[in-house]
Specification:
Blueprint (H helix, E strand, L loop, with lengths): L1 E4 L4 H13 L3 E4 L15 H16 L3 E10 L20 H11 L9 E11 L8 E11 L15 E3 L4 E2 L5 H7 L1 H14 L2
Parallel strand pairs: 1-2, 1-3
Antiparallel strand pairs: 3-4, 4-5, 5-6, 6-7
Helix pairs in contact: 4-5
């Protein structure tokens, strides 16, 4: 079964594609099919994931899987949240976003630096699918004072995972996937897809 992965984010593709492939899906990233990113006008991770999956399904005629995710920082009232990719501006790089967050939290003491990643994965069988599969995972951590580690993507170098004693960027891909927001959402999605 061919499925389009409705993301332009290479980090997400790395963390999702091989397990979906092992599950028996023939995964193609939307960029390989020339699909441009959908406009993310939703106000929730769920809405944005549905928008992205629907857009890719519409253009390709294939079933689609989308990932909407982000980082919610307690002391910022859950920001940057759904705006995580655009935190430092509309075309901001991961590095710029991460630096803006470190600067914003400069005077915040260690015990107030709690944060969590969220990931919503959506599977749509076709663009008009009225009952998409929707799965959510979250991951608790703490924002560091400086970046560490070269793995992962996005905010991983400043996301300290207390259970591992390392940042997310210091974990291997398999270690991250075993516990991350995306790994959890993916496990739920594969179970849901198995059941129809
Ligand atoms: P697509 O919409 O094309 O999938 P995107 O990068 O724009 O790609 P989002 O709108 O979902 O994706 O934004 C997600 C943001 O959250 C982005 O800034 C990521 O770097 C960050 N993020 C999500 N998952 C992450 C993870 O596992 N590690 C670090 N940062 C993550």
């Amino acid at each position: 079964q061919k499925v389009v992965l409705a993301t332009g984010n290479a980090g997400k593709v790395r963390e999702l594609a091989d397990l979906l492939g092992n599950f028996g899906l023939d995964v193609v990233a939307q960029t390989e099919l020339g699909v441009e990113s959908a406009e993310e006008t939703g106000l929730t991770f769920i809405e944005n994931a549905v928008l992205k999956a629907r857009h890719a399904a519409q253009i390709t005629g294939l079933p689609a899987i989308a990932d909407d995710s982000g980082l919610a920082v307690d002391v910022l009232g859950g920001a940057p949240g759904i705006y995580s990719a655009r935190y430092a501006g509309i075309d901001a790089t991961d590095q710029q976003n991460l630096e803006k967050l470190l600067a914003t939290l400069k005077d915040v003491p260690d015990e107030q630096r709690k944060a969590r990643f969220h990931c919503v994965l959506v599977y749509m069988r076709h663009a008009e699918d009225p009952t998409p599969l929707v799965c959510h995972g979250s991951w608790e951590g703490q924002i560091t004072r400086e970046a560490a580690g070269a793995g992962g993507f996005g905010y991983d170098p400043i996301f300290f995972v207390p259970t591992e004693g390392k940042t997310a960027a210091e974990l291997t891909r398999d270690e991250k996937r075993a516990i991350s927001h995306r790994g959890q959402a993916l496990k739920l999605l594969l179970e849901a897809m198995k059941n129809g």
